[in-house]
Amino acid sequence: MYHYRIxxxxxxxxxxxxxxxxxxxxQPTVFFADADQSNKISDWTWDNSTGxxxxxxxxxxxxxxSSPSAMMVNGTPNVFFSDGNDNGEMSNWxxxxxxxxxxxxxxxxxxxxSSPSAMMVNETPSVFFADGNDNSEMxxxxxxxxxxxxxxxxxxxYVASKISPAGLMWNALPNVFFVDGNYTNTMxxxxxxxxxxxxxxxxxxxxxxxxxxPSAMxxxxLPNVFFVDGSYTNTMxxxxxxxxxxxxxxxxxxxxxxxxxxPSAMMVNGTPxxxxxxxxxxNTMxxxxxxxxxxxxxxxxGGxxxxxxSSPSAMMVNGAPNVFFSDxxxNNAISKWTFESGAWHQQNLFQDKxxxxSSPSAxxx
Length: 365
Hints:
Elements: E1 2-4, E2 7-10, E3 13-16, E4 20-22, E5 28-34, E6 40-47, E7 51-61, E8 69-73, E9 76-83, E10 89-96, E11 99-109, E12 117-121, E13 124-131, E14 137-144, E15 148-158, E16 166-170, E17 173-180, E18 186-193, E19 197-202, E20 215-219, E21 222-229, E22 235-242, E23 246-251, E24 264-268, E25 271-278, E26 284-291, E27 295-302, E28 313-317, E29 320-327, E30 333-340, E31 343-353, E32 361-364
């Protein structure tokens, strides 16, 4: 956001107008652990005049087979990651008018080969992660203007190995879905209410495939949690909630998701869509989407293969879905799928490669 005012000067003196503001249009930015920069953070940013531009943030490197989690905080990009220079503890790249700054949190480390999950909780940034200092149980870094960053340990049920949580705000309350190692890798939810505080809900059905993470979104105001279903040959399933049925599971029964990858779910102009690496189609991109005539149906995008152990990151850009991924066909450089003029198109960015076993994180910044 920029501030300006009109100034009028004459022989009679100078008059200052009221303060005004304007914002530059948000542009897509894709953060990733850059294998060509010793696994330090880099980003691809779109510029309307010059196209995609690559920047290297430098600083500390991302821990092995871990991915950054980026989000906007009060108009400022923040990129949280497991810091390989600090024993896997949490760090954050944040930007202001002076440029990028690295902040180290210097406490509990993120469990090996898992990643943080950042979201806004009623205007408060919170970063959830499997805490290696607490047997991989859930913890949360949250920030307030009075106390700065504060760590909270949840002390119950551990997050399954190499898996990251998925956070979601539902009815203005935080929910953090995770694969529960205490319950045969079935889904559980850390939910918060004013009466109970943080409490755990166990779903008790269908194991999530090893090394994969859920992806949560709201559809018509209700939560849906998509996951790779280890009880059904690694096909997609969905934990959905309705007032009549509560939490119930929907099986999609088709095309297996690639080992060690996670779906990326979002609303595409009112249509729920779940992008995933399709093991039944040479590890290329596919998506599950829903309409009233067909219900859930699959679209195979084809194109280049996604790198092993890497997951897509989907976002909306000017009303069009964009799906960024580490492109195995192009030496693990970033590529993206976008839907324009009624068809899917693939674009290769052709430069630095994503670190092995890591995934990009895309935001509008």
